[in-house]
Amino acid sequence: MYNDENNLYHYTYRKDGSESQNSQPVLEAPYREPWESNMKKDQKKNRSGAKIVALALSCALLGGAAGAGVMWGVSGSGSSTSVNVSNRSAIAVAVKTVDGKTAMSDAEVYAANVNSVVSINTTGSSGTNIFGQSVETASAGSGFILTADGYIVTNHHVIEDANAVKVTLYNGDTYDATVIGSDEDYDIAVLKIEATGLQPVTMGDSDTLNVGDHVLAVGNPLGELTFSMSGGMVSSVNRAINVDGTPFNMIQTDTSINPGNSGGPLFNEYGEVVGIVSAKYSSYSSESVEGLGFAIPMNDVLAMIQDIMTNGYVTNKPYLGITQGTMTSQMAEQYRYDISQGVFVYSVEDGSAADKAGLKMGDVITKVDDTDIATSEDLVAAKKSYSAGDTSTFTIYRDGKTQTVEVTWGSVPADQQTDTKDDTQQNTQSDTNNGNNYYSNGSMDDLFNYFFNGGFGGQSGQNGQSGQGNSPAA
Predict the structure, then answer these.
(1) Cα–Cα distance measured from residue 117 to residue 127, given in angstroms and rounded to the nearest whole number
(2) Which of 298, 369, 431, 433 is found 20 to 30 A from 290 (Cα to Cα)?
(3) What is the pLDDT of residues 351-373, one digit of tens each?
(4) Angstrom distance (rounded) from CA 408 to CA 354
């Protein structure tokens, strides 16, 4: 899961399994015998009284047992203490069918869906140590069963770089899972286990959520507290956040979200899945914050999930075919551009949607339809509103003038699906002199090399969330 500990959203369940913990000293209270001072003072002269009190106490306890155990008490020295004990019988939770019409209690939502939630454990490798030995990593997350024959949904970052994925059901059965496909831009992944007769979730309409609606998360917090449920409300809908350079549209909730909850379902009060738990925000600048969890709206990704199930990747994902970067005032000043905001086009792929529309290296994109584009992240966010084949009007700056071009979005080539950032593919290195980021894809022409050698690029953001320059998502 993403978590903000250093003013950046990032994954909280680290692949090396480490988590920062603050140890607190345990203070032990001195032990005192009950009624110690009174007993020592009156021990000799009240021996017979003690017997009477003991007899009375025995009678009281017996009488209480005969009276359905309503209370038990202690009396002595003119004082009386009693504790009320309920005799209410436990109520069994009925397992209801999720029909989208019947509101349920929290316990009923859990009972109806816990068999559809899974815990996910992955193993991978992160290079070698100083002895040349492979360093293995492990992480954990959550997911939910989409179909009775074993398709499972989780986050992309849960299974990213994993060599092996294991899925555990509520009944304890564990399966080796195959990654059917995933998409980093939308942080979704589809797994498959060889099983039948599973209990799938019921999808809900995330567009019907209102601020204040009650929601529940079930998952695998800390990778150990499996099948735990937490509850809260919808704090905001359509909340735009930036996760390590990648913009997301999220459901904000104050439901308790912790490392290991990533990929788990967010339920509404009808027991329907309305979101995929994905991120939390735990600090801002030097301040610790609570109750800022985020889930991906199901309506935004359901069609993509189905596409991954069928084709192994998102086939209608829009693709422009440029290498881009954020325009800066420094670039504008040195190269005499009249604008200092927008997306600078460093290169255009032959035959791509951008190439067919006539976009050129050196153009600056300032608007897509009615959406203003000030940064590279703005263009990535705007792209998510379109599908392959859609046509948009791009406003661009070229040769000192503003003009518009019609762009028909292409689709991401199948051989580039593993690199979901191909529209913004830039290798980044820091300039220790001025803090700017340089960009190069290793094959730029003279103009880009000129910019690169001049040291231009997006500056690191200082807004307490994520960099507002051009750094790719982690």
Answers:
(1) 32
(2) 298
(3) 999 999 999 999 999 999 999 99
(4) 8
Q: Cα separations (Å) of 268 from 20, 254, 282?
A: 32, 14, 24
Give the C-alpha separation, 451 to 471, whole Å.
17
- What was the pLDDT predicted at 124? 87
Q: Is the pLDDT of residue 67 over 70?
A: no
Active site residue 262: yes
CA 278 – CA 342 distance, rounded (Å):
29
Q: Exactly one of 230, 262, 392, 440 is catalytic; which is it?
A: 262
Cβ atoms < 10 Å from Cβ of 85 = 11
Separation CA 192–CA 176 (nearest Å): 9
Task: Tally the residues of the chain.
Answer: 474
- The upper half-sphere exposure of residue 457, i.e. CA atoms within 13 Å in the direction of its Cβ, equals 28
pLDDT attached to residue 440: 31
The tens digit of pLDDT for each residue in 19-39 reads 444 444 444 444 444 444 444
Of 187, 300, 307, 423, catalytic: 187
CATH hierarchy code of domain 318-454: 2.30.42.10
Return the structure tokens found at 87: 């005799």
**3-class DSSP state for residue 132?**
coil
CA distance 186 to 235: 21
Please give the Cα distance from 187 to 8 (Å, whole number). Answer: 17
- The domain 1-16+94-315 is classified under which CATH number: 2.40.10.120, 2.20.28.10, 3.40.30.10, 1.10.3720.10? 2.40.10.120
pTM score over 0.70: no
Distances (CA, A) of 52 to 12, 48, 75, 80, 135: 63, 7, 11, 15, 72
Smallest CA-to-CA distance from 472 within 267, 286, 326, 361 is with: 326
Tell me which residue of 114, 106, 188 sits closest to 154, measured CA to CA.
188
Give me the catalytic one of 4, 139, 157, 347. 157
pLDDT, position 283? 67
CB atoms < 10 A from the CB of 446, how many? 8
pLDDT, position 1: 57
- Domain map of the chain by residue range? 1-16+94-315, 318-454
Could you write out the DSSP letters of every residue in 431-450? -TTT-BEEEE-S---HHHHH
187 is catalytic: yes
Let me know the angle formed at the C-alpha of 372 by 367 and 377, rounded to the nearest 5 degrees: 95
Helix (H) or strand (E) holding 334: helix 329-334
What's the CA gap between 393 and 368, in Å, rounded?
6
Q: How far is it, in rounded angstroms, from Cα 410 to Cα 304? A: 16
Separation CA 232–CA 217 (nearest Å): 9
Six token digits for residue 408: 């028909």
